Amino acid sequence: MSSLDIKLDRIAARADELRAMLSDSISGEQFVKASRELADIEPVVARIGDLRAAERAKEEAESLLDDPEMKTLAEQELYELKDRIPALEHEIRLALLPKDEADARSAILEIRPAAGGDEAGLFAAELFGMYQRYAESKGWRFEILEYSDTGLGGIKEATAEITGRNVFARLKYESGVHRVQRVPATESQGRIHTSTVTVAVLPEAEEVDVQIDEADLRIDIYRASGAGGQHVNKTDSAVRLTHIPTGIVVAMQEERSQHKNRAKAMKVLRSRLYEQQRATLAAARSADRKSQVGTGDRSERIRTYNFPQGRVSDHRINLTLYKIDRVMQGDLDEFVDALTAEDQAARLAAEE
Q1: Given a cut of 50, is residue 230 above it in pLDDT?
Q2: What percent of the chain has pLDDT over 90?
Q3: What is the DSSP code (8-state) at residue 297?
Q4: pTM for the model
Q5: Distance, CA of 233 to CA of 277 (rounded, Å)
Q6: Residue 206: left if φ>0, alpha if ψ -120 to 50, beta else—which one?
Q7: Between the CA of residue 2 and those of 9, 99, 111, what are the distances in Å?
Q8: What angle do CA 159, 161, 166 make, to 5 degrees?
């Protein structure tokens, strides 16, 4: 019996044990814990059932190969099972990979222009719109927390909260440097310029995830100024939070209410601190192995958008798509699916 078979038998036995517990008289916290555990493993148990059924069918078909009347049917059955059994084993191995508990969470999206001046600001605004359209296509709620524009159609920085199931799982590979190559509208010579924009996707943190001591905060209240504030130079409602132990600074001025700006700033600060904790843990766990799809570091160049050639290239997985217009309209699933598959393959290889 293989090590996978032993592991699968254990999981199936545990599911039977949990079902027996739930049918008995357990209650309270014990009942809740058993229910959650069973809910977590039931999809794998169903797949194990499919695999065992396919293996039995294979054994039965093999036993009929010597029967002249049944041989053709048995060969047909074996032909169909030849791919089904390995596919089921692969699905189960993927399901057994350690889960990132942040995957099911909502996310905070932060976008800032980097190199390239006004053109970088313009492309940053286009990327922000791209993610907004992608969120809408998934049925997620996209709420702008902060949007500071340049006055020329670009942005200085923008932050949004994207709420829904598995948002972080779908968007976490977007963190990094996005590069654009195109001829700016202001370029009279027709030369192609290269600009960059940084994107950060953070899992949204709850208060229970990160405890922030008020004594660790410096809170500055000031008057909203510059493009982006809806109520510029009217009230002292803009809020800047500085987390003294880490030096993280979050500023909000989008709302008219000081309290609302502070609440939004705390939400972003909490998510940045939570992501910092996650990064520290991940580094400790895999100090010697870098993920094949990247570190999620916003200094890592991950994708190039080349408008003259109509292509978008992801450098981590060497995938190039010639549909830049559709990508900018939020058609990102092909990249997301490929990055997810690459990450799963890397983690499967590390488990073996």
Answers
A1: no
A2: 23
A3: -
A4: 0.70
A5: 37
A6: beta
A7: 11, 23, 48
A8: 130
